[in-house]
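Exercise 7b. C-alpha cells:
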C-alpha cells in the first residue's frame, strides 16, 4: 500500500506547486514510509509515498509508459499483474520496472477505461493522460482503499486521506453537519461522502474522468449483481462448496504474491480460520498469524484462536487488550480514521496492526467479507424472522424465533417481554421498505443524535441519507429477493465505508500494514452473489458452503461455531475512576461548548453518569452516544487545534527520506529529471 496525492489545475489556474505537493504527501508518510516521488507539469502534479511490497527495486512512483505520456500515482495491489503483464508484453509493450503499478499504465494505453474492470486488486489510482488531457481517479470494485477529492476554485485536489488535502492549504477542515448526523445514525457516511464539507469520496467501483476544463464525468464500471444466476439454480450444497473452495484457494494464492513476508489474522471465527487454513495450503515455509485477546472474558476468543493456530501450524502472536490499551489507542485511531466512531472496535485492530509491524511483517490476509457475501450477520436473520412474523403480526410465537439469534434475550426471558418485542415490531409490515432489514438498526443508533448540537441535528436529513445509498445501489436491485437486497445495502452502506475503512485500511495503514481480503476477490464475490439464497442461508443456518469447506479444513468446533460479532469494550474502558485525562478534558462543559458540535449540557450529564457508574451504562445506545461524542470531540480537537503542528512535524519528517522528482515540466524541458530533491 501507499499514499497518493495530486492537483489538477484548470486553464486559468497557476501550475501545481511542488511545495504544496510536498505538504500534501508528507501527511501520508504512515501509508508509505519508504520514500516519496513527484511528477509535475503545467496542469497536473502527482505525489506518492511508497510502501514497498512488489518490485522493491526501481519502483518509485509516479510511474510512466514508454513515451512518458501516461503517468500514475497508485495505492494498492493488482493481484493479477503477472497475467496482465504477460498479455501486454505479447502485444508489444515494454516495461522498465517489475512493479504491478507499471502494468496499469500499459493496460490503459492498450484498453483505455476498459482497463478498470480487468484489474483484480484493491486500489486507488490517480492517472494523468497528457495527450487526452484527462485525469482519472479510480477506486477498486468494493472500495477497499480510500480516495478523496475536493474542488477548490479552478483546481481539483485529491489524496488518499483528507488530512493531505488540508495540509496542502487550499481546503479547510470544516465539518458537514448532515454527514455527522449520518454517522450518528448509520455508523458511517455512505458511499460518496466524508464528514468534511466539500470533501468527497470516489465511490467504490467508480472511475471519475476529469477533463481539462475540470468537468467531472462519473463512470460506474462495476456493481454487485445479486439477482442470481439461473445456471446455478439447481446447484447442490456440495457442488457450491467445491466451487467456492477452488475460487477461494485461488484468491488466497494470488494474495500471497509479494516480495515481503505475508501473515494472516486469526480471530477465532469461521471466516479468518478458513483463510488461515488455506494460507497453510498455499504457502511454503513459515506462516505468522496474529490475534487480539481481551482482558474482559465477555469479548475474548483466545481459546478458539489458539485452537486454529495450533491446528494450522502457524506461529501465533497476540496482544491482550484492556481498558488502558483502548484508552491509549483511541486518539490515534480517530486521527487516522477521520471520522467519529460510535464503537471502540477499531482500537484493538489498530494495536493488532502495530503488532504485525513490530513482527517485521508488512502484509496480512483477513477473513473480512464472508458475512456480507454469505448471509452471516444477524441483521439478515432478523430480516427473515420479521418477514415471517409480518405474515401473522398478531402471533405470539413467531417473534420468539428472535431468541435463536439473540441468545441473551432467550436466556433472560426478554424474548417474551412486550418491550423487547415492540422493539422489533417497528415497521413490521412495511416489507416493501427498501431498507426493511436495516431500519431497526438505524433507528436504534439514531437515539444518539440527541447529543449533537441543535444546528447539527437540524442538518440531519433522513431522506438525503437514504437517497445517498439508493443512488449507488445497482440498477434493478429492488427486484431481487429479500436476502440479496439486504446484502446489497449492507455492502454499500457498511462494508465499504465502515468495515473496510474504520476497521480496515485506516487502522492498518496507520502502522504501514497492508491487509488483503481473499473473500473480496472478484471471482469469489461474483460467485457468491450468483448463488441462490437457499445456498447461503437455510432457515437461520448461515454461510452453508463455507461451513462445508471448513469441515475438511478445521476442527468441528470452529466449523459449527455460530457467528460471534467482533466487539470491544466501550464505556467501561473509557469512563470511571481510571478514565484518561483526555476523556475528562474533552467532555468538560468548556470543551463541549468550544467546537459547537454537541449538546454540551446533555453530553456532560451523560458523561458524569458514566463516570459515576464506572462506564456501566443502561444500554448500548447510551454507550454509542458517549463514544460518538468523545470521538467527535477528538476529531475536532485534532483538526482544529493541533493540525498545524502535526502538519509541520510531518513535513519535517520528510527530510532525510528518499525523495525523487521523476519529472518536472514546469519551467524546464520535458526530459526526465529523476534526482534527489
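Sequence design result:
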Amino acid at each position: 500500500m501507499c499514499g497518493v496525492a495530486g492537483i489538477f489545475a484548470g486553464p486559468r489556474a497557476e501550475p501545481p506547486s511542488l511545495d504544496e505537493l510536498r505538504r500534501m504527501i508528507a501527511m501520508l508518510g504512515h501509508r508509505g514510509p519508504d520514500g516519496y516521488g513527484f511528477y509535475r507539469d503545467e496542469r497536473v502534479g502527482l505525489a506518492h509515498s511508497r510502501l514497498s511490497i512488489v518490485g522493491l527495486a526501481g519502483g518509485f512512483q509516479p510511474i510512466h509508459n514508454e513515451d512518458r505520456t501516461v503517468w500514475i500515482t497508485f495505492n494498492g495491489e493488482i493481484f493479477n499483474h503477472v497475467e496482465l503483464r504477460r498479455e501486454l508484453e505479447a502485444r508489444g509493450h515494454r516495461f522498465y520496472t517489475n512493479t504491478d503499478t507499471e502494468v496499469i499504465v500499459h493496460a490503459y494505453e492498450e484498453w483505455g477505461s476498459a482497463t478498470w474492470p480487468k484489474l483484480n486488486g484493491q486500489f486507488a489510482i490517480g492517472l494523468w493522460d497528457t495527450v487526452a488531457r484527462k485525469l482519472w481517479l479510480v477506486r477498486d470494485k468494493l472500495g477497499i482503499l480510500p480516495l478523496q477529492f475536493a474542488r477548490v476554485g479552478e483546481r481539483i485536489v485529491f489524496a488518499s486521506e483528507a488530512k493531505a488535502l488540508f495540509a496542502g492549504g487550499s481546503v479547510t477542515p470544516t465539518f458537514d453537519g448532515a454527514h455527522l448526523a449520518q454517522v450518528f445514525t448509520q455508523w458511517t457516511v455512505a458511499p460518496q461522502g466524508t464528514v468534511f464539507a466539500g470533501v468527497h469520496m470516489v465511490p467504490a467501483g467508480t472511475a471519475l474522468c476529469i477533463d481539462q476544463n475540470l468537468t467531472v464525468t462519473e463512470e460506474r464500471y462495476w456493481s454487485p449483481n445479486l439477482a442470481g444466476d439461473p445456471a446455478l439454480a439447481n446447484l447442490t450444497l456440495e457442488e457450491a462448496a467445491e466451487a467456492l473452495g477452488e475460487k477461494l484457494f485461488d484468491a488466497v494464492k494470488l494474495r500471497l504474491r509479494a516480495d515481503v513476508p505475508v501473515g494472516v489474522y486469526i480471530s477465532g471465527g469461521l471466516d479468518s480460520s478458513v483463510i488461515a487454513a488455506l494460507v497453510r495450503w498455499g504457502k511454503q515455509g513459515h506462516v505468522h498469524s496474529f490475534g487480539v485477546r481481551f482482558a474482559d472474558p465477555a469479548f475474548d476468543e483466545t481459546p478458539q484462536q489458539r485452537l486454529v493456530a495450533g491446528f494450522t501450524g502457524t506461529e501465533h502472536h497476540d496482544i491482550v487488550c484492556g481498558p488502558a490499551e483502548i484508552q491509549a489507542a483511541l486518539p490515534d485511531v480517530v486521527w487516522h480514521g477521520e471520522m467519529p466512531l460510535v464503537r471502540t472496535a477499531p482500537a484493538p485492530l489498530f494495536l493488532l496492526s502495530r503488532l504485525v509491524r513490530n513482527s517485521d511483517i508488512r502484509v496480512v490476509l483477513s477473513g473480512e467479507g464472508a458475512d456480507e457475501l454469505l448471509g452471516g450477520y444477524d441483521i439478515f436473520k432478523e430480516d427473515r424472522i420479521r418477514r415471517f412474523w409480518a405474515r401473522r403480526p398478531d402471533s405470539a410465537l413467531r417473534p420468539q424465533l428472535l431468541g435463536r439469534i439473540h441468545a441473551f434475550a432467550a436466556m433472560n426471558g426478554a424474548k417474551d417481554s412486550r418491550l423487547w418485542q415492540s422493539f422489533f415490531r417497528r415497521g413490521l409490515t412495511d416489507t416493501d421498505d427498501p431498507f426493511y432489514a436495516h431500519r431497526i438498526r438505524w433507528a436504534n443508533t439514531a437515539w444518539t443524535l440527541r447529543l449533537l448540537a441543535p444546528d447539527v441535528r437540524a442538518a440531519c436529513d433522513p431522506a438525503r441519507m437514504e437517497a445517498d445509498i439508493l443512488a449507488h445501489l445497482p440498477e434493478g436491485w429492488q427486484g431481487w429477493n429479500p436476502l440479496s437486497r439486504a446484502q446489497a445495502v449492507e455492502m454499500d452502506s457498511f462494508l465499504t465505508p465502515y468495515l473496510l475503512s474504520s476497521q480496515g485500511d485506516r487502522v492498518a495503514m496507520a502502522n504501514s500494514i497492508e491487509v488483503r481480503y481473499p473473500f473480496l476477490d472478484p471471482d469469489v464475490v461474483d460467485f457468491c452473489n450468483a448463488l441462490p439464497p437457499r445456498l447461503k442461508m437455510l432457515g437461520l443456518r448461515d454461510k452453508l458452503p463455507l461451513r462445508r469447506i471448513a469441515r475438511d479444513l478445521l476442527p468441528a468446533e470452529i466449523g459449527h461455531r455460530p457467528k460471534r460479532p467482533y466487539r470491544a469494550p466501550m464505556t467501561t474502558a473509557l469512563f470511571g475512576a481510571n478514565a484518561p485525562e483526555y476523556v475528562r478534558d474533552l467532555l468538560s462543559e468548556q470543551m463541549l461548548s468550544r467546537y459547537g458540535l454537541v449538546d454540551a449540557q446533555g453530553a456532560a450529564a451523560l458523561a458524569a453518569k458514566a463516570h459515576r457508574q464506572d462506564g456501566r451504562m443502561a444500554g448500548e445506545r447510551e454507550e454509542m452516544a458517549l463514544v460518538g461524542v468523545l470521538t467527535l470531540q477528538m476529531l475536532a480537537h485534532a483538526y482544529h487545534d493541533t493540525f498545524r503542528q502535526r502538519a509541520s512535524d510531518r513535513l519535517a519528517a520528510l527530510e532525510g527520506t528518499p525523495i525523487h522528482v521523476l519529472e518536472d515540466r514546469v519551467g524546464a524541458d520535458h526530459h526526465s529529471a529523476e534526482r534527489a530533491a
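Instructor comment: Confidence is low (pLDDT under 50) at residues 669-677. Residues 62 and 73 are 5 Å apart (CA to CA).
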